[in-house]
Specification:
34% helix; 74 residues; elongated; alpha+beta; two-stranded antiparallel ribbon; 3-stranded antiparallel beta sheet; 5 strands
């Protein structure tokens, strides 16, 4: 899956084809002994990370819209 990594400095990084385990990332960010995090080859201080947002392609968006439409019609 592709992600957009946002930093508190306003910088944006696109992580293409990254396999990020949300539970492991949460544990890492909440661990006070860990100061740096590796995001697909980008090593950052965890305190500069503002957000990690999954990017959804237009095709995936259309699939989600179709599923939602089917659910509302059922």
């Amino acid at each position: 899956m592709d992600y957009e990594l946002r930093l508190k400095t306003g910088e944006l990084f696109t992580l293409i084809g990254s396999n990020i385990d949300a539970n492991a990332l949460t544990d890492t960010l909440n661990n006070h002994q860990i100061l740096f995090v590796n995001f697909g080859g980008i090593v950052l201080q965890k305190h500069v990370v503002d957000g990690l947002i999954p990017l959804i392609s237009e095709e995936q968006t259309e699939d989600v819209k179709e599923e939602q439409l089917e659910q509302t019609q059922a």
